[in-house]
Design a protein that fits this description.
Elements lengths: L11 H26 L12 E5 L10 E12 L2 E6 L5
Antiparallel strand pairs: 1-2, 2-3
């Protein structure tokens, strides 16, 4: 294995910082591209909003949503917790 002289190589810390910076910029470009092509948008729901909850359809006559409305009680990232008026979550 050839031996590399340390005086000719850039500082490892500086090189590492440049690589991380380049990687972060590339990831941001990929995210922008993905978001624009999937028509992603920011969530407009907040705690206290009333929402309908989707349910599994049992047959073609069943509703897409549960008949009861839910109130959003907590939001953590993409996960939301909602509660019905009778206390069920």
């Amino acid at each position: 294995m050839p031996h590399m002289d340390d005086s000719q190589s850039p500082e490892p810390a500086r090189l590492d910082a440049e690589i991380r910076e380049s990687d972060t910029a590339a990831k941001q470009r990929m995210k922008q591209y993905g978001d624009s092509h999937s028509h992603a948008r920011e969530r407009q729901l907040a705690t206290g909003d009333t929402v309908l909850v989707r349910q599994a359809r049992r047959n073609k006559l069943s509703s897409y949503y549960e008949p009861h409305r839910y109130i959003i009680t907590d939001i953590r990232g993409t996960m939301m917790t909602a509660q019905r008026a009778d206390g069920r979550t």
